[in-house]
Amino acid sequence: MKNKKNNGEYDVSCSDCGFLNCYRQEKSFPKFCPGEAVEPGVLENVTREYCGDVDDARTARAAAEVEGLYYGKLTRVEEVLAFARRIGAHKIGLATCVGLIEETRIFSKILKRNGFEPYSVLCKIGSVDKGRIGLDDNLKIRPGTFEGMCNPILQARLLDKWGADLNVIIGLCVGHDALFSKHSEALVTTLIVKDRVLAHNPAAALYTSKSYYNRVMEEGRQRV
User: Fold this and answer.
1) φ/ψ of residue 126, rounded to 5
2) How far is Cα of residue 108 from the mean position of the Cα atoms in its chain?
């Protein structure tokens, strides 16, 4: 089932659903439900990946346990600690943005006082100028100056070499966080999502999309 928009087509997906029956099974599934379209064998195979004593199963149970026990009770900082304990993580890698180094220092102290061993790697590690990777000088924040590029791949490799049991992203840029997660051998979770305009609370743009930030809803608006 598809809906047409601007002479194109897109698949109807979970965000178009008004039932959300998959959570409590108190209503019914819509005809376009992606979950209902999954072949029984595929669903069964995926479900088995959450069972037993393999890493993914232990991770899934730890996450579900933290959610069930502390729903609406713990901050994100506390949830990270609770999750780390349940997966047996001791060495916690911190992939941090240079702009959030103070927040990283505070979180590092919290980890130490709670019995963990933290190790942080800054996004500018290696100190390579952005021009080295082909970025035009006029696209720097301050053209005409040395400006270190973000280096998420090296962050991931250094934390892997250190032996991180769990890596925590602290404010990496959009895209850099994706590269870090792609190249990290350890599990990755996020403590802070960067949003310089909204004090690192990107959800605020969604909550105010019909008022202060209604520009994000304007069709045909020049793309950034």
Assistant:
1) 95, -25
2) 19
Specify if 57 maps to a domain: no
Residues 6+ apart with CB under 8 A from 25: none
The confidence score (pLDDT) of residue 76 equals: 97
pLDDT at 170 over 70: yes
Separation of alpha carbons 209 and 165, rounded Å: 38
Domain interval for residue 91: 85-193
Q: How many residues does the chain have?
A: 224
Beta strands in 36-104 (DSSP E): 91-96
Nearest partner of 126 among 102, 106, 98, judged by Cα: 98
pTM of the model: 0.90
Other CB atoms within 10 A of residue 82 CB? 18
For residue 95, give the CATH number of its domain.
3.40.50.1860
Residue 18 lies inside a defined structural domain of this protein: no
SS3 191: strand
